[in-house]
Structures are given as C-alpha cells and as structure tokens.
Design brief:
Blueprint (H helix, E strand, L loop, with lengths): L2 E3 L5 H14 L14 H11 L5 E7 L5 E9 L8 E8 L8 H15 L4 E7 L3 H9 L3 E12 L2 E11 L3
Parallel strand pairs: 4-5
Antiparallel strand pairs: 1-2, 2-3, 3-4, 5-7, 6-7
C-alpha cells in the first residue's frame, strides 16, 4: 500500500471515499446525505491542490489501487498564520488499527517540514478516543475544548483542539 499526493485523476475515487467515510463514521463533519460534490467540483478542488505550497492532500491506496484513506493539510493564508497547517484525516473502517493514520501523519509532517510549516493543528470529537490516542502518540498535545461545537442526532459534542509544533 502506498501513500502519494492526490491528483485530479483521483476525483471520482475521492468522492466515493468521502461518501463511504460519511456513512461509516459519525466522526466526520458531514452527515451521509449532506455531501453533494459533483465530479466537476471535485476536479476543481483537486486542481487547486496541484503544486500548491500552502495545501496538500495525501492518499493511501490498497493493493488494488483503491483509495482507502486521506489526509488534507491547509495552511493559513496570511503572514501571521501561514506557518500553521490545519489537517483532516479519514481512514476506511476496514483499515483501522493498521498504522495507516500514523503513516499519513508522518507523510503530512514531512510535507509540512519541506514547506516551512511550524505547527500542525486539528480538532477531534472528545469521544473519539482512538483518534485522540493516535494524535497523542504522534506528538500532538491538547490545547483546549470547543464546547458543544458539533451536534449529532440532537446531542451536542465537544471537540478538542490539538496541535504539534515542528522544527523545535
């Protein structure tokens, strides 16, 4: 299984991956019925990632060249926050507990180091203990709580702010 930078040719598979993740997990932001990305819109989004110094999408493929996981990193747009990279990660459930999240974060950190990034940050739902363990194992620390920031089935959920400082 390889990790590589996503490209415009991945657009159809990315839509499928995102839809699968939305259905498999309540830890993703979108509800299964909310995602309505067309192939054309996904291709436009991927074109913006191509050769960017401020954002990247990395994908993991299985042995059949099917996309099974992704990580996105998007840096700030301004002088005061361009050193900070916000990331989102998703792994198909059948591939959990195989080190894929860790390998995606390792590759994202390498990209960040090569692009002058000093900080990687994310939010994670407070009850997503597996993800929190992954992030802490990878060196992220908890910085704070976004109280009642997500609502799932009428229940408000806190999110944790977490970050990892690089080049220190």
């Amino acid at each position: 299984m390889s990790i590589r930078t996503a490209n415009i040719n991945d657009s159809a598979q990315l839509i499928s991956l995102f839809e699968t993740l939305d259905q498999e997990s309540t830890f993703m932001l979108l509800e299964p019925s909310e995602r309505d990305t067309s192939l054309e819109n996904q291709q436009k989004q991927m074109a913006n990632f191509t050769d960017s110094n401020t954002q990247v999408m990395l994908v993991k493929e299985n042995d059949k060249a099917e996309l099974i996981a992704f990580v996105v990193g998007i840096a700030g747009n301004f002088i005061r926050n361009k050193h900070s990279l916000y990331c989102v990660i998703g792994v198909k459930s059948e591939y959990h507990d195989k080190g894929i999240g860790h390998s995606l974060l390792t590759n994202l950190e390498e990209w960040a180091n090569n692009h002058g990034i000093h900080r990687i940050e994310l939010t994670v739902m407070e009850h997503n203990l597996k993800a929190i363990r992954l992030y802490e194992t990878f060196g992220f620390i908890r910085e704070g709580i976004k109280r009642d920031s997500i609502c799932i089935a009428g229940e408000y959920i806190n999110e944790l702010y977490m970050s990892k400082l690089l080049n220190k």
